């Protein structure tokens, strides 16, 4: 239905194709931008006339269109599509049912294009084996020697020339384009298959794995985890799954079901970035967790902020009443440790204790130390 409507609005010489999902592309000979915008307006008009009968209700649909000009013979097909896609996202940001033309001189266009290229790079990195797992230790604040409580699993991506790309540079693109589920599953499977046996030979070491909103929303998540644990013989008690407040509240029902199944099997649950939301303490009524990770924003300036100290003290007090552990993130100075210890916070994570390193090296060092 949509394809027929779009063909009605396009000139005879246009080539229309489906890219996937609800995305289409049209190749149109044009003489100027005005004509391109005119065709785009006709397309939007035709699409908005469509009515779909879904579940007994009539649904309207709309469209956002990005226009990119093929004025450079050296551009590849993927680069051309990326430019049009970047313009399309700009159109969506302006309110949908709009048209935008790709302009390399605008910051928004460059940002959108960079995000699209980053997303493409993630898939290439996965297929080429250029995604790596790192680990960062979390220590008991009351004993800041080399005693490891657990290791948070982190990720790094490398380019073809070996340059390391931090998560802050590729995770936003992965979230935007729905790739976090793919990344999370790869991290879980790769970590347990590659390091699960070694982990089980080490005493008092567990690993914490972050689960994105995309992953939590997957109804097959728990069956996937069960299968991987059985295949690798990794005890559930060695696994901690970290869920952010935002993920929990935006996916409440599925998150609650996952938490219940995971804890019943013996896994542990940590509520990450605690304190970032306005209703943080309210979530504790609905989620039975084993630990709380205080949002790093409260820890980074802890030494100079009485307000932050009061917030951390409140979180620590509530945690003690509930019988759950508390982890302070982003610890970078000894003064913060002294304050956290005085407030009864049990565990800490940050560059002061340990900088993330490849999990292979970290586990080797820990094994040699034992």
TrEMBL record:
Residues 1-104 form the GGDEF domain. It comes from the Bacteria. SUPFAM superfamilies: EAL domain-like (SSF141868), Nucleotide cyclase (SSF55073). PANTHER family: CYCLIC DI-GMP PHOSPHODIESTERASE PDEB (PTHR33121:SF23), CYCLIC DI-GMP PHOSPHODIESTERASE PDEF (PTHR33121). It comes from Phyllobacterium sophorae. CDD domains: EAL (cd01948). SMART domains: EAL, GGDEF. This is GGDEF-domain containing protein. Gene3D superfamilies: 3.30.70.270, EAL domain. One of its GO terms (molecular function) is cyclic-guanylate-specific phosphodiesterase activity. It holds the Pfam family GGDEF. Transmembrane segments: none annotated. Residues 115-370 form the EAL domain.
């Amino acid at each position: 239905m949509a394809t027929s409507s779009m063909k009605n609005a396009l000139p005879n010489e246009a080539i229309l194709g489906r890219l996937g999902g609800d995305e289409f592309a049209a190749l149109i000979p044009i003489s100027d931008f005005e004509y391109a915008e005119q065709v785009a307006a006709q397309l939007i008009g035709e699409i908005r006339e469509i009515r779909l009968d879904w579940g007994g209700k009539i649904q309207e649909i709309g469209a956002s269109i990005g226009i990119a000009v093929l004025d450079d013979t050296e551009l590849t097909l993927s680069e051309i599509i990326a430019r049009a896609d970047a313009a399309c996202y700009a159109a969506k940001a302006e309110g949908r049912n709009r048209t935008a033309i790709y302009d390399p001189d605008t910051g928004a266009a460059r940002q959108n294009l960079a995000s699209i290229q980053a997303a493409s790079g993630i898939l290439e990195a996965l297929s080429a084996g250029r995604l790596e797992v790192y680990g960062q230790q979390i220590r008991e604040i009351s004993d800041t020697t080399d005693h490891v409580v657990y290791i948070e699993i982190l990720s790094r991506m490398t380019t073809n020339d070996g340059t390391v790309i931090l998560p802050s540079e590729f995770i936003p693109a992965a979230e935007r384009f729905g790739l976090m589920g793919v990344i999370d599953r790869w991290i879980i499977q790769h970590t347990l298959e590659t390091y699960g046996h070694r982990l089980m030979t080490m005493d008092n070491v567990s690993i914490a794995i972050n689960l994105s909103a995309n992953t939590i929303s997957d109804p097959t998540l728990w069956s996937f985890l069960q299968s991987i644990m059985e295949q690798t013989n990794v005890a559930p008690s060695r696994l901690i799954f970290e869920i952010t407040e935002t993920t929990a509240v935006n996916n409440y029902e599925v998150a609650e079901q996952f938490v219940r199944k995971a804890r019943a099997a013996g896994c542990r649950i940590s509520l990450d970035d605690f304190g970032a939301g306005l209703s943080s303490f309210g979530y504790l009524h609905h989620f039975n967790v084993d630990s709380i990770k205080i949002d790093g924003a409260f820890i980074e300036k802890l030494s100079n902020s009485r307000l932050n100290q009061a917030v951390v003290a409140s979180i620590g007090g509530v945690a003690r009443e509930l019988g759950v552990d508390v982890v302070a993130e982003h610890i970078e100075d000894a003064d913060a440790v002294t304050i956290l210890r005085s407030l009864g916070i049990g565990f800490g994570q940050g560059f002061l204790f340990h900088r993330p390193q490849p999990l292979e090296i970290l586990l080797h060092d820990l094994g040699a130390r034992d």
